[in-house]
Design goal:
Elements lengths: L15 H16 L6 H32 L3 H38 L2 E3 L7 H15 L6 E2 L14 E8 L10 E6 L6 E3 L9 E5 H7 L1 H4 L4 E12 L13 H11 L5 E7 L4 H11 L6 E4 L10 H6 L15 H4 L4 H7 L2 E5 L5 H12 L3 E8 L7 H11 L3 E6 L7 H13 L3 E3 L6 E2 L3 E8 L2 E9 L11 E8 L2 H14 L12 E3 L3 H17 L5 E6 L5 H12 L3 E6 L16 E6 L4 E2 L3 E4 L6 E5 L5 H5 L1 E7 L3 H17 L4 E4 L5 E3 L10 H9 L7
Parallel strand pairs: 1-6, 8-9, 11-12, 12-13, 14-25, 17-22, 19-20, 20-21
Antiparallel strand pairs: 2-4, 3-4, 3-7, 5-6, 7-8, 10-17, 11-15, 15-16, 16-17, 18-25, 19-23, 21-26, 23-24, 24-25, 26-27
Helix pairs in contact: 1-2, 1-3, 2-3, 12-13, 16-17, 19-20
Length: 692
């Protein structure tokens, strides 16, 4: 047991926040893996940085708010948890910069790729950087001296800033000690130096280095003693009073403008920053010493994510591949005919997302289609899906979109899409206030022979063509009429007129999805008690719901064999005698973000298989509209089992096992041949060729 785990070592349910930090530790292990191409390792560092930003903006901010509101036993436990989060975060961030400085940057330099600092610029580069600063950077900088007439400025969330120590007097003969320089987001964060002065290399410099080098020019007339970059992370939770709000979209618009200035939760500065400056910043931002993180490099590593795009060097990235398309779709000119033949499974990113776009495109142009209904959670700024929906509405189809305005950090994008959809004549609803719409459903109604016929797409992932190339997800196309009727019923619930009626096929949250999961676990417990073989397999992104965890503990004690694949936070402790010795938990990480949700109950060999949108978290099971749906076709069921559950459990290349003390250990095969679930699926469904 690690020293800083001592407060929670006896808890049977581990706080979600600690699980999130453990997940990011595993991501950093990929950045530390020399077998992975160097630009991909850099991406993993940037992903970790982005994840930690969101972690502090949301989860830590929420804990701090609770701590300030609660002054009782609960607040004491929150204080202990915040201490542990701080200690673990310090370790992670220190490791992050060590990998960057000791491994990634030297490896890039072996490939003639350089991140320049002042001390290693040549004369021509120094002159070019100076000219660039004078023409592009200096005019947009506005230094602010801190004095009674100029209080500490409102620093934007996650923006780049400098705290500058100065000596001397300004034009009004006022003594100046500290100035703040804010670097506008309009400036690019990484700039490539011209090839003709880079001596045959690809050379880059960060905007923070450029500003730091020229700080004397920013503050003429005073002596610059030192300048120190810093960045503030703020509470980014949006608040809308659900009882008072009359227009959800207008309420969101007002909240978005305030997000950049929420309460401070973290301060990052360069490790060279003097204590008196960091103490000054902490005081102005109303933060404690545990909220300060000293970094050995740029304060925002997320910005380095643009470097691979600038380089365009495929040899230093994962090999490219072309996603496959099922033969059943290729042999039919019309996708409706392909769906009528039999159900279709799409396993992204190994199989293309284009059939989903084609489904919408054909529907928007088919004269027999009378209505289209779709949920949208995250779809992206440039979305072919949304354009097809707009096109359908303009062609006279009845189009209804249940759009989730409060998809975290995509609120502004979804707000803009809501306006565009409404302007095109689409009926846009925002689900149910207080319940996020997270289900992935697309329903097309055709009128054939004077009867309405349903065609459906359901999935585990968002209707986002970009993430469909990066996330593993399952999509399902069907013309099953019972399933279509269920989906139509859910849309009635979302538009405000449906009742909480039982469905024939779908498991729906927040109504009965959790109850059905729990009763299925109980069924396996009963089978075990009768001497039968009882098994549960589940693949989810997170497992933190206390009710589900306690039920799994009970199932383990009853003799049920439980195999869990949990990519992210897992509040369950496996392998504890008398509690969870029949439970194993592993996490798969790799080239793609594992995002599928798959649940299988053995049920005396029937293998009841469900896939859907919900993780086993309280928010998904109680506070969101989610759906699970059954897979009954034997061929598709076998595919899903083999491509997800079996492959993940077999993986000894990119898999981590969760230990009873809630630490993860990477599974290492001592043999020369490894099995990777992601490689297996790439070879099976794409034109990908394994690197030699």
């Amino acid at each position: 047991m690690k020293k800083n785990d001592k407060h929670f070592e006896m808890d049977t349910i581990v706080p979600r926040e600690l699980g999130v930090l453990e997940f990011n530790r595993r991501v950093l292990e990929l950045a530390n893996d020399s077998a992975i191409p160097v630009l991909e390792r850099l991406k993993f560092i940037c992903i970790t940085s982005n994840n930690l930003d969101e972690f502090f903006e949301v989860l830590v901010a929420r804990l701090k708010t609770e701590f300030n509101e609660e002054k009782n036993e609960k607040s004491k436990k929150i204080a202990i948890l915040l201490e542990e989060i701080s200690a673990k975060s310090f370790e992670l961030i220190k490791l992050q910069y060590r990998i960057l400085n000791d491994q990634i940057i030297p490896e890039l330099e072996k490939h003639n790729i350089f991140l320049k600092k002042k001390e290693n610029l040549n004369k021509e580069q120094i002159q070019w950087v100076s000219d660039y600063f004078i023409s592009e950077v200096k005019p947009v900088l506005t230094p602010i001296a801190i004095d009674p007439a100029h209080p500490f400025p409102r620093v934007l969330n996650k923006s780049l800033n400098f705290a500058v120590e100065v000596e001397g007097e300004d034009a009004f003969k006022r003594k100046v000690k500290i100035a703040i320089v804010q670097v506008p987001r309009s400036l690019p964060r990484i700039i490539e130096l011209p090839s003709n002065i880079s001596e045959g290399t690809r050379s880059f410099i960060t905007i923070s280095s450029i500003v730091h080098i020229h700080m004397k020019s920013v503050l003429p007339g005073v002596k610059v003693v030192g300048s120190h970059q810093f960045r503030v992370t703020r509470n980014s939770e949006l608040f809308v009073d659900e009882e008072e709000v009359t227009d959800l979209r207008d309420a969101l618009k007002g909240e978005l403008s305030d997000r950049h200035y929420g309460a401070s939760v973290r301060l990052e500065t360069s490790k060279q920053c003097p204590k008196k400056i960091s103490d000054f910043l902490l005081g102005e931002l109303e933060l404690e010493k545990n909220d300060l993180f000293l970094v050995d490099g740029p304060v925002n590593l997320v910005r380095l994510m643009s470097l691979p795009t600038l380089l365009e060097n495929p040899e230093l990235e994962f090999p490219k591949f072309v996603p496959g398309i099922p033969d059943q779709i290729k042999k039919h000119e019309n996708i409706f005919n392909a769906i009528d033949e039999k159900d279709i499974l799409l396993h992204h990113p190994y199989q293309s997302f284009s059939p989903v776009i084609d489904f919408l495109d054909v529907a928007s142009n088919d004269p027999t289609v009378v209505a289209i209904k779709q949920t949208v959670y995250r779809t992206g700024v440039d979305s072919a899906v949304m354009e097809k929906l707009i096109n359908a509405a303009r062609k006279g189809k009845q189009v209804t979109v249940a759009l989730e305005l409060f998809a975290r950090f995509d609120e502004e994008t979804n707000y803009d899409w809501a306006r565009r959809l409404e302007n095109a004549g689409v009926t846009v609803v925002y689900g149910v206030v207080g319940f996020k719409t997270h289900a992935k459903m697309l329903l097309v109604l055709r009128k054939l022979n004077k009867k309405l016929r349903y065609y459906c797409h359901l999935g585990t992932g968002n209707y986002n063509a970009d993430t469909a190339k990066k996330y593993t997800d399952l999509g399902f196309l069907t013309s099953n009429q019972e399933l279509g009727s269920d989906i139509n019923s859910v849309f009635s619930q979302l538009t405000g007129v449906g009742q909480n009626a039982p469905h024939k096929k779908l498991w729906v949250a927040p109504f009965h999805l959790k109850d059905l999961v729990m009763s299925s676990i109980e069924k396996e417990m009963k089978i075990a008690s009768e001497g039968g073989v009882a098994k549960i397999y589940a693949k989810v992104n997170a497992l933190t719901d206390e009710g589900v965890i306690n039920k799994l503990y009970a199932a383990s004690k009853a003799g049920v064999n439980i195999n869990l694949v949990v990519r992210g936070a897992c509040g369950l402790r496996p392998g504890i005698k008398g509690l969870s010795e029949n439970i194993s938990v592993r996490s798969i990480l790799g080239q793609f973000l594992e995002h599928s949700r798959v649940v299988m109950f053995f049920n005396n060999g029937k293998n009841d298989l469900y896939i859907g949108s919900a993780d086993w978290m309280r928010r998904n099971l109680h506070q969101r509209m989610e759906v699970y749906f059954p897979i009954v076709d034997p061929t598709l069921k076998e595919r899903i089992i083999n491509e997800t559950l079996v492959a993940d459990i077999k993986d000894d290349s990119k898999a981590w096992e969760l230990k009873p003390n809630h630490t993860y250990k990477r599974i290492k095969n001592r043999k020369s041949h490894f099995f990777s679930a992601q490689t297996y699926n790439l070879e099976k469904m794409t034109d990908w060729v394994k690197p030699k």
